[in-house]
Amino acid sequence: MQCISRRPPRSGLTSGAAVNTNKNQTLRQALAQGRLFTAMAAHNPMAARLAQEAGFDGIWGSGFELSASHAVPDASILPMGTHLEMMRAIAATVDTPLIADIDTGFGNAVTVNYIIPQYEAAGASAVVMEDKTFPKDTSLRADGRQELVRIEEFQGKIEAAAQARRDPGFVVIARVEALIAGLGQEEAQKRAHAYQEAGADAILIHSKQKTPDEILAFIAGWSGRIPLVLVPTAYPQLTEADIAATGKVGIVIYGNHAIRAAVGAMRSVFAQIRRDGGIQGVDAALPSVKDIIALQGDAHMREIEKKFLR
């Protein structure tokens, strides 16, 4: 009978933990060095892999995109477990840091304190949490219900998140929704400074204005010691060069372009197939099956087969 040897368990960090620590350091170093970090939204591992292939520094684990991919509103409808498991799948697929969009934290400060280690264990390098009430309404919806929690309440949630992280390199980003709610610059600055004092590592300032004027005014008035984060969905004319030139922004997030690209492409292809009564007019323009198989990691699987299948 063949004897099968068993390797002893590793001591210290597991290889997965070590990889995630490296990802955390990558994001932390970008923020410390003042280099603009670019993150593309993803709603599944394939979108994340394509974003990495395109050269983005990291992945935005978008709650909006995940909700859209399930065909439900971005209004705290999907359970935390659905989002968490998608973040785990994305983090396992890419080598770049993952910034998880945890909306309002799925509850109060107690909830936040419990879920941060879970997102860390899932492979996220950062979370973004917004100061709206639970359940939330998406920020860019026309005439949406934009209700903010008290500053002190949100400070407690930030403190709970910072205390719960196992790796000090894990980044906690506080998202200020005062401009979205129409409360003005003074309230936005007040909240941003309060969240900095509570332990946030960066401030995401959001706007739904069609020009960047409101955001640029906030940036000009920001005297805090931590970097800002922008999501220029509503004001696409603001380029990365413009953002970097402010000297105050550490991360730019492209918040919903993966799902919009996917919907646009599928809608176009599906409509043409119905018009043509077949796939003869679209097939040549689509990525080949061979390309999809390569993106699935087929080459790596073949290597494993050669090594271990006996």
Automatic annotation (TrEMBL):
Pfam family, one: PEP_mutase
CDD domains: ICL_PEPM
InterPro entries: ICL/PEPM, PPH, Pyrv/PenolPyrv_kinase-like_dom, Pyrv_kinase-like_dom_sf
UniProt keyword terms in alphabetical order: Hydrolase, Pyruvate
A GO MF term: hydrolase activity
Gene3D superfamilies associated with the record: Phosphoenolpyruvate-binding domains
Family classification: Belongs to the isocitrate lyase/PEP mutase superfamily. PEP mutase family.
NCBIfam families referenced in this protein's UniProt entry, alphabetically: Pphn_pyruv_hyd
Protein name stated in the entry: Phosphonopyruvate hydrolase
